[in-house]
Amino acid sequence: MNASNQKISPFLEKVSQINFDKFYTPRNRFICHVCTWLFFSVLLFLNYSVELKLPFSSSLLLTARGTINNMTVFYLFFYVLVPRIFKSSVWGIFFILMCIPASIYIWLSVNYFQFVILHYFGIDIHEGALKEIISKNAKQPYFKAISYQNVFGNAMLVIYSFSPPFFVKILFDISRLFNRTIYFQKQTLDLKLQNLNIEKDFLKAQLNPHFLFNTLNNLYGLVVKKDPSAPEAIINISDLMAYTLYESNTEKVPVQKEIDFIQNYFYLERMRYSADKDITLEISVEDDIDNIQIAPLLSFTFIENAFKYGLKSAENNFLKISIDIVNNIFYFAIENNKEKNSVKKTSFGGIGVKNVEKRLNLIYPDNHELITEDRESSFFVSLSINLT
User: Fold this and answer.
1) Do 17 and 143 belong together in one domain?
2) Which residues form the Signal transduction histidine kinase internal region domain (predicted)?
3) Does 369 score more than 90 pLDDT?
4) Within a domain: residue 357?
5) Is there a single domain that holds both residue 291 and residue 240?
6) pLDDT tens by residue, 75-99
7) What is the four-CA torsion angle of 76, 82, 87, 93, rounded to 10 degrees?
8) pLDDT tens digits for range 18-56
9) Measured between alpha carbons, how far is 179 from 23 in angstroms, rounded to an integer?
10) What's phi and psi for 382, nearest 5 deg?
11) What is the domain extent for residue 373?
């Protein structure tokens, strides 16, 4: 499907804009957990008090006992067992399902030991439907409390007891996962659309009639003078057009091809100026860059703007470009003169530069640094990209 035809519904757009990580700070996480357990505890208390008609103290005691059971199973399951299972085995889902019976055993064990402690201190329920439930359970042996007959007999009751907090946790995690999925889907679509727009914009730039007119006019002059550099200029134009038409429409290209493109473009633009102009391109690369790739045409906007807006003052004209690749880091710097007190040009605020910033944020988040400076007598741009 064409990226330009893919759309995200308004609802999913809103979901993708929710920043769970920003909201779910340790403090807010603690508050959410406390409020959730209080909510379920109130519901459990009402069940004992209203449904079973137990006294307030008995309802509160059994509510505390049930909440401790549920919290123990909940935190062991989600914060101990599940993370270890997913880190250690590809059979994570299978082992998580196997943890359900284990959770029942844990719940019954914690429940049994609570009854034993309460019985030791002489605490019991003395009236109602659950009369003497503590002493009855505390007096039985531990292995009888967790026997398979007891497990199967109480399985539904136990699952019913700890399933509400489990459901809330799973629902919340699914919402976070859904949010991240939609966010990255939106980022991917934005990147595809951005690449399409960039491809179109750069194609227009390369086929700009003014650029072609100047280049062909200079080439004509070389041919008339039978300059030996004319064939090389023709090859450079051919390579330039081939790169913009066929190769720069992918997300990444070999960094050597990008350097070749910059050299070809620089050479063709340099033809327009006399040899005494201070216009230089310095490239320094490591011995082996065959396996290094880079997003295409990220530096082109700055080079095009430098030639377009620079070199216009009567004196002290200069345009200097340097490219270095060291330890898989692409360093690009460009500086060109400007007239003092001149109005800032679109080279530092135009759509082209904003597109570059957007592409850098999408393709190299936290792996790039772009610096633009409007100095007193020059424009300066520095870009570094970690290509690993």
Assistant:
1) yes
2) 200-274
3) yes
4) yes
5) yes
6) 888 888 777 776 665 566 666 667 7
7) 150
8) 666 677 788 888 898 999 999 999 999 998 999 888 999
9) 13
10) -130, 130
11) 207-386
Whichever domain contains 374, its CATH number is 3.30.565.10
Q: What does pLDDT average to over the chain?
A: 80
Among left, alpha and beta (phi > 0; psi -120 to 50; other), residue 328 is left
Beta carbons within 10 angstroms of residue 64's beta carbon: 14
Band (pLDDT 50/70/90 cuts) for residue 324 is: very high
Residue 197 resides in a domain: no
Give domain status of residue 199, yes or no. no
**Boundary (domain end) residue, out of 155, 185, 215:** 185
| Residue whose tokens read 């960094």 | 255
What's the number of domains the chain is made of? 2
In a domain, 191, yes or no: no
